[in-house]
Amino acid sequence: VGPRVVATNIAETSVTIDGIVYVLDPGFCKQKSYSARTGMESLVVTPCSRASANQRAGRAGRVAPGKCFRLYTAWAFQHELEETPVPEIQRADLGSLVLLLKSLPGLCLGVLVVSPGCPQVVLGHPRCVPTLSPDVPVASPSLTPIGHLPGGGATPLPDPGSPYGCTEEVLTVAAMLSVNNAIFYRPKDKVLHADSARLGFHVPGGDHLVLLNVYNQAITAGFFYHTARLTRGGYRTVKHQQTVFIHPNSSLFEEQPRWVLYHELVFTTKEFMRQVIEIDSAWLLEVAPHYYQAKELEDASARKMPKKVGKSRDELG
């Protein structure tokens, strides 16, 4: 008995596998579908089309005589299956693509219409609505500043001059969201270990803050040797006890957290740390136990310091 293939969507590609003699076609496929009304993307099992079924049958007998066994009736093939699959452009999330095309000068929305109902779907898209100017006719909407940002307004971005002071954090979260679900790896043979490791990143406040925590810890793992702690005389690097200062342009310049990680040191009028984030000293022992000793990372928070100095953001409220 020769090799067999239980056909999935891969059998519809032009891939030829030597020695395939029999193909079993269940008549279904997994297909991504997007609902503009709910803003939800789902992966659902749907009946395949007649064109897809013929493609699957073509995998058998390409290099030798073979057979395709369809697990449904000939009547169902002729009357229940669609002739061709629904084009991906009609079932995909076009939000980012539409905003990108709309940002091009002189492009009319009518150019984007690929099927009936498209303008309503696009203009009603939950990602497009907050990025289109409300005072412009619907037939030719223009983009707000958010709509011109990379990612097409994937998340509500604050004004850089916003009094909330969280622009960097929101941009980080937006970047983490842009990679979909690729942050955490969950292999089937290590599900319990993966879930346990993921719990280690959980923080109060929700999933967006978890992503921010993952980013901060990842930065710590990559730049663990670029750390400094706050002392009464200012910041000193952990390993070389070099006096350094947070750059005035940093968002942490006024906060002065206990522990920081920096991207680089530059000397102008002083030794300044640039691109600084707040970290937990416990992370350093976790990601670089070969580099740090516990006594180097003893918490000096009990020492008297001026009010608000050496406080974390959570403690400052």
From TrEMBL:
SUPFAM superfamilies linked = P-loop containing nucleoside triphosphate hydrolases
**Gene3D superfamilies given in the database record:** P-loop containing nucleotide triphosphate hydrolases (3.40.50.300)
So what does this thing catalyse?
Answer: ATP + H2O = ADP + phosphate + H(+)
Q: Which domain of life is it from?
A: Eukaryota
Q: Where is the Helicase C-terminal domain?
A: 1-105
Entry's Gene Ontology molecular function annotations: RNA binding; RNA helicase activity
Gene Ontology cellular-component terms for this entry are: catalytic step 2 spliceosome
Q: What is this protein called?
A: Helicase C-terminal domain-containing protein
Q: What is the species listed in this Swiss-Prot or TrEMBL entry?
A: Buteo japonicus
